[in-house]
């Protein structure tokens, strides 16, 4: 089979140049449009966060626990996906247009591509699975860049998401390159709210009524102080006695904060509770082995 190309100077070059020019202009327009929409969403989210910062603590506690900027994270990820798909589609269209212009028959090529696609699908099932999983993760907003996630063997912060691989940096600084098809379940620590559990042990013979009163006073105080209250979505809860042993009784306090912000207020409440109990003369539990 002889392949005869159609090459009429300068018409062919003009058609090819026009196709490339249109593709470049269309690409710049679409990418610019996507970037502007994303930037506008970032500005709106920043204004919303700034407004929330000025509200009273009671209004903050009525929040749903969802970050105002969460939509921006999702939109940014979706924007990257759209730009990637758009670029691939545009390049394929330009290549096919150029081949058609110079006289390359497309029907055999498209038929071969279809057969090759089937063969490739069987030979690279894991790669196809990674891409499909990546698309579904981005669209469903399972996680985004900057989120702290738990995928079973790895707990860390997402640093990059592509259609095939997610890069996660763990607490030791190691970056893990995880194929999207291997991520079967995701625990997103950065969505919604975080819960902090504070266990306060006292001696077994301590007066529980006094202990409860002292701890409740501590919680009432911290709720009025901006340094702690601004990080709480709801008032701290004194849940009561959690465990009892022959040497100690442990009472539990629970707090709810924006994502990943539970540690600082939990430490503050724990320190104040221990100091308040000591000042009230509540006996501390005996050390192990005493």
Describe the structure using short key phrases.
290 residues; alpha+beta; three-stranded antiparallel beta sheet; 8 strands; 53% helix
Please describe the topology of this protein.
Blueprint: H1 11-54, H2 57-61, H3 70-101, H4 106-123, H5 125-140, E1 148-150, E2 155-161, E3 165-170, E4 175-179, E5 187-188, E6 194-203, H6 208-224, H7 226-229, E7 237-244, E8 248-257, H8 263-279
Antiparallel strand pairs: 1-2, 1-5, 2-3, 3-4, 6-8, 7-8
Helix pairs in contact: 1-3, 6-8
Give a written overview of the molecule.
This protein has 290 residues and is of the alpha+beta class. It contains eight helices and eight strands. The protein has helices at 11-54, 57-61, 70-101, 106-123, 125-140, 208-224, 226-229, 263-279, and strands at 148-150, 155-161, 165-170, 175-179, 187-188, 194-203, 237-244, 248-257. It starts with 10 loop residues before the first helix and ends in an 11-residue tail after the last helix. Residues 52-66 have low confidence and may be disordered.
- Order of strands in the sheet with most strands: 4-3-2-1-5
Judged by helices, strands and strand pairing, the structural class is: alpha+beta
Low-confidence stretches: 52-66
Mean pLDDT: 79
End-to-end C-alpha gap: 94 Å
Q: Which sheet architecture does the biggest sheet show?
A: 5 strands, antiparallel
State the oligomer: single chain
Number of DSSP-assigned strands: 8
Residues in helix, %: 40-55%
